[in-house]
Amino acid sequence: MFLFVLQYHVDEMKKSFLFSALYAAFVFGGRHLMNKRAKFELRKPLVLWSLTLAVFRSSFSNTKQDPHAPVLLLKQLSILFHLYSHQLLP
Length: 90
Prior knowledge:
- There is one protein chain.
- The chain is mostly helical.
- 74% of the residues lie in helices and 0% in strands.
- It has helices at residues 2-33, 43-60, 69-85.
- It is a multi-pass membrane protein.
- One of its GO terms (biological process) is fatty acid biosynthetic process.
- It comes from Muntiacus muntjak (Barking deer).
- This is very-long-chain 3-oxoacyl-CoA synthase.
């Protein structure tokens, strides 16, 4: 039984290394191919996305179970506004 389990783990380890190598080749190959392309300006869409997630989290949370949800929403919005207005977002 032990040898069967050991062989199973060795076979799965080979698959893990294969997929890890393929992933690394994909990431670094893609980085090399995209090196000459112009960068996207995604700051505003990502801020809008974060604000939308914060609003939906607040609107769908049950205030009986989570009475601090509106306070957390205001904190998230104020932090995002501060970071965006001082251009501290990456």
